[in-house]
Amino acid sequence: MKMLNISNSPHVRDxxxxxxxxxxxxxxxxxxAVYGIVQFGLNALLVLIVSxxxxxxxxxxxxxxxKKPVTIYxxxxxxxxxxxxxxxxxxxxxWIPALGSVFAIIIAKQMFGGIGQNWxxxxxxxxxxxxxxxxxxxxxxxxxxxxFDATTGATPLMTMKTALNAGNSTAxxxxxxxxxxxxxxxxxxxxxxxxxxxxxxxxxGIYLLARKVITWHIPVVYIVTTALxxxxxxxxxxNYMIAEVLGGGLIFGAFFMATDYVSTPVTRKGxxxxxxxxxxxxxxxxxxxxxxxxxxxAIIIGNMLSPLIESATIPRAFGRxxxxxx
Length: 326
Hints:
By secondary structure, the protein is mainly alpha-helical. Helix content is about 60%, strand content about 0%.
C-alpha cells in the first residue's frame, strides 16, 4: 500500500522557491546599491558588506546553537542584511549596521520561529531598533563624498519639514531644501545609501513586477495614497507632493519592505486596505509628526494590523453561510 503525506493547506505549488525569490529581490536592489556606492564611496560599500555578513552569520550561529536546520542558503538573511544596509547613512560607524542585523535576525526573525513565522519585517525591525537606540548616528547624513551644494547634515525632507514648522509655505520649503526635483529623481541628495535615487529604485521595482515576485497593488496604492495625503495637506502643491514621493524612503519602502510576503495580507482586497492604511500613516508622520520620514514605523504598524485586515477581507468559504445574529 502506497502511503501518502498529508499536509496543511494551502496546497498550492509553484516552480519558484524561497531561494529564487530572494535572489530576485537581491538583483532588484543592485541598481540602487551600485548608485549608493558610487555616490557615497567606500564606506557605503563596507556598510553593506558588514550588514549582510552580520545577518548571515547571526542566522548561522543561532541555528547551529539551537540545533535547527541551517537556512542561510535560502538567501533570506542576505536580503535582510542588504535592506538594512541600504537604509543606513553612508558614513555611519560599521558596528551599528552589524548590531542592527543581529537584532533583525535573532530577535525579529529567529525568536519567532524563523522565515515564514516572523510577524514583522526583520529588516524594518532592525532599522527601527537603531533609530531608537542610535538616533545620533542614524540621523547624521553629512558626507564629504557628494561634492555639491546640497551637502548638508539633513535630508531635503527634513529641511522642508523645518521650514514648514517655521510657518513657511510649501513652495518656500521646497526652495529651502536646496535641491531640484530632477536632483531628487536622479539621487544627487543627502540620505541613506539605498534611498536617494528614485530612478534606480524604480528600475528595481519594475524588475520585481516583471518577474512577478510582487504585484502592483501594494507599492502603487501605497505611493498614491501618501502622495494624495501630502497634496491635500500640503497647500495643494503639486511640486511639494512630488518632492515627498521622491525624497526619503517611500519608493524603497513601497517596493522592498511593504511587500514582504510574511507580514502582509494575502488577499487582494486586504493588500489594498493595508497599502491605504500605511500610506495614511506615512502622511500623518511626515506632515504632522516630529520627524520627516515615517515609512519604517508606518509599515511596522501595518504589519501589526495585517492579521486583522486579512480576517476582515478574506473571502467566505464556498457554501458557508454567515452566522445569523441573535
